[in-house]
Amino acid sequence: MSGRRSRSGGFFLAPEAPQPASPALAAAPRAGDLVGVLAAEPLLPAATATVARGLRRDARTRTAVVATTGAGAPPGPAAPAARAMARRLAGAESTAVAAGALCRVDLPGDPGAACREAWRLVRVAGVPVVVGFAERDDELDALLAAADRLVLATAPDADEALVLLAVAALARLGPPTSHLVLPGGPVGRRLAALGLGGPGRDPEPVAP
Description:
The chain has 208 residues and is of the alpha/beta class. The chain is built from seven helices and ten strands. The protein has helices at residues 23-26, 44-59, 80-91, 111-125, 138-145, 160-171, 186-193, and strands spanning 6-8, 11-13, 34-38, 65-69, 96-99, 102-107, 129-133, 149-154, 177-181, 204-205. The strands form two sheets. An eight-stranded mixed β-sheet has the order 5-6-4-7-3-8-9-10, with helices on both faces. A two-stranded antiparallel sheet has the order 1-2. Helix 2 (44-59) packs across helix 7 (186-193) and helix 4 packs parallel to helix 5. The longest helix is centred in the first third of the chain and has 16 residues, at 44-59. The two termini are 31 Å apart.
């Protein structure tokens, strides 16, 4: 059974004896970047889409894939590239919905199945893939440890001491780690969830 990480104030702290990454996951083939995002559940739509927007810009792609558990796309128009990606992933038996400039995928609730689906998305999509989680366990940590980079997203009023603990715990997984602050406001977060703009500055790298 996977060991659950403790959560305090919506943050994600590693256990005293973290588990090593699965060799199979660490060696998984990838066709594009995989970025893991950790955030409190209400912040996940805006956090993952904000990170995906930056990846689209850097990779110069017309869309990106955002995968979370219960990914439900916000209502609204979708860009042609996002719709095309949703059809492509649906043909590969993923639950995909276009939303704004992004393609959102609903990950399975089981951590092991979620990890397998995440790697399948990386292989099939050919564009940046952002996976978002509201908690950590050993299986998800194996996925995160094999990602290209990690982002912890928080609200501006988050407790600074807890943020520092959570960032340090995430950074110990190995990939470059950043901290993203998402300002409050429902309108900005809705825009961000569609990948069309919105709150927050670029994630700030965390010194090793």
